[in-house]
Every structure is written in structure tokens, then in C-alpha cells.
Hints:
By secondary structure, the chain is mainly β. Helix content is 0%, strand content 48%.
Amino acid sequence: QVQLVESGGGLVQAGGSLRLGCADSGRTFSTYDMGWFRQAPGKEREFVAAIDWVGDITYYADSLKGRFTISRDNGKHTVYLQMNRLEPEDTAVYYCAAKPRPSNLRTWYPGEIPYWGQGTQVTVSS
């Protein structure tokens, strides 16, 4: 069983950076591919990025390539999302997600995610 707790959200000005973290308090972190989704008010939850269980393969939403970077530290049972050059349109609740390995990182859909974190708010002011 995986239990996910996000951290690192907050308020930042446009152009700034934030790093989100998601820690698994269980003992099976390395058996899961990990990812991030986000949900803005009034919008559906959307895929942000995913990383395989080793940390070698990553996949991003096309619109976020070059600004966001996903990484993981299996020793610390943590996945990270580094967000640079933030824009007001990035304002959303960001959710950590886990799927048992192996998964197709290109086909991560919200309805197929078995494990979620509680979410962390990111607000980007203009």
C-alpha cells in the first residue's frame, strides 16, 4: 500500500519557481511509477508529468515541457516536481499519483490512477 503526502505548494509571483515533493510513508515506493496531475478551479484534472520506478524515463504534458521537471529519490521514498517560469495559468491544486509498475507513462488518465495524494495548492500571482 502506498500513502502519499505532498508538500511544497504556496504562493509565488509569475516567473518564479517552486518545488513540490511527494513522500510515500509506505514501504513499496520503488514498485510504483509516479506522477503529478493538477486541477484548476472549474476544470478537469489534467496530467502534468510521470516518471518510471527507476527514475530513468519521464514523460510530460506537451504544454509543460521545458518548464517542469519530475524526478524521484527512491532512497527517500519521494518524487519531486520542479516548476520554473511559473505562470498564472499554472495555478491549481497539484496531486501526486502512483501506479504499479510497469505502466505506460504516455497513457496516465485520472480514472486509472489507484493512489492519490491529498493535493497541494499552487497559486501564481501576476
